[in-house]
């Protein structure tokens, strides 16, 4: 069976994946861009359409795992758009006309709407479904390829708690946010079911990989 | 002025320095020894009286900073003994007849008692004092050498919040405890006042050093 993977999911030292006060202008709240600066200096980000040419060191090596072999993504409502997007029937997501996913994307929301076809191969589908149900749909759409979980923290926690995640890559950034949405809540003893590796890099971040032991 | 330092302070991925349910039999609660296994395999630990011969790699290099140049330690009541030790007037601490401190040690407690002189140069003094007041006493006793903060998490947080800590060395262990006493609470934006480095080592832990920027 194909794998379920999490990539480039950035957290603070205290485990927050977003800060407090999320809005259209501040999708990560008071965290701003600080959780993702490590990625902006990679060749991976440049190839995704980012500005700088970027390096090909360790941060790039980890970041570039994001896309290879992925056939579909599942994301939470908060990644699709800022709070309240469900009230705008014409809203097409926060990721531009040519989103960086290039596969079917399943958006988890309690208020589903018709699918939206974007440029570049991304089609948004909207699901009010449990993690297992959403994964079944995404696996069908991925046609044998892997499924990526796009975040935020709440949906990743839910999928991990149900034992649905095969590989998880977190990136710990040396800041303390104090407030926001925390990845660790409810994941006590995750080391019993995952092999965990830590690799710090010269940019100052620490890459944490979780590989399911049952594999 | 002499420095105030924290060393070998081990935390879980989710930031807990002790687990829940601390007692005489389980000084770190449900965390058990897991937060400190990285240290038991170092030469430093062997030289402190631990069983194995131990290695001299990166974990040892970090661990060995613990003792050099230290003239006194300040510790919280929970490090001196398990909950309730204050009710035993003859209690002499959880660290044996020859404690591994070999300096004056100031124990913060709301119920002070007379000082106790132990073997090997350790003398326990008991203080009901603010962080600044305790530090003043410890500095006098340290006679120009540095002062080490021994933990637990609550007292370290209090000293950091008051800007009294010059150097802090945390060791992040790849387990998720879920419950206990967390180091990060109240330390939002610590990156503004400390330079932070992260170094992961082959044992699987990540050493985090915090150096005060004002220096």
UniProtKB/TrEMBL annotation, chains A, B:
Name of the protein in question: Dihydrofolate reductase
Lineage: Bacteria, Bacillati, Actinomycetota, Actinomycetes, Streptosporangiales
Gene Ontology terms for molecular function: 5-amino-6-(5-phosphoribosylamino)uracil reductase activity
InterPro entries registered for this protein in UniProt: DHFR-like_dom_sf, RibDG_C, Riboflavin_Biosynth_HTPR
Recorded superkingdom: Bacteria
GO terms for biological process, alphabetical: riboflavin biosynthetic process
PANTHER family: BIFUNCTIONAL DEAMINASE-REDUCTASE DOMAIN PROTEIN, DIHYDROFOLATE REDUCTASE FAMILY PROTEIN (AFU_ORTHOLOGUE AFUA_8G06820)
Transmembrane segments: none
Pfam families: RibD_C
């Amino acid at each position: 069976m194909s794998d379920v993977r999490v990539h480039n999911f950035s957290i603070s030292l205290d485990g927050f994946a977003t800060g407090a006060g999320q809005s259209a202008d501040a999708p990560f709240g008071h965290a701003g861009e600080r959780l993702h600066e490590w990625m902006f200096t990679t060749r991976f980000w440049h190839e995704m359409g980012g500005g700088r040419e970027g390096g090909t060191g360790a941060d790039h090596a980890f970041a570039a795992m994001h896309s290879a072999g992925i056939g579909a993504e599942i994301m939470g409502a908060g990644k699709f758009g800022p709070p309240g997007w469900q009230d705008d029937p014409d809203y097409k997501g926060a990721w531009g006309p040519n989103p960086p996913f290039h596969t079917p994307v399943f958006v988890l929301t309690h208020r589903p709407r018709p699918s939206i076809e974007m440029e570049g191969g991304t089609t948004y589908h909207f699901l009010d479904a449990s993690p297992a149900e959403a994964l079944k749909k995404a696996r069908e759409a991925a046609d044998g390829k892997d499924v990526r979980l796009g975040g935020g923290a709440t949906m990743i926690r839910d999928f991990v708690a149900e034992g649905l995640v095969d590989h998880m890559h977190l990136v710990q950034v040396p800041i303390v946010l104090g407030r926001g949405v925390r990845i660790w809540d409810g994941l006590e003893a995750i080391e019993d079911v995952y092999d965990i590796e830590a690799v710090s890099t010269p940019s100052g971040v620490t890459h944490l990989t979780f590989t399911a032991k049952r594999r």
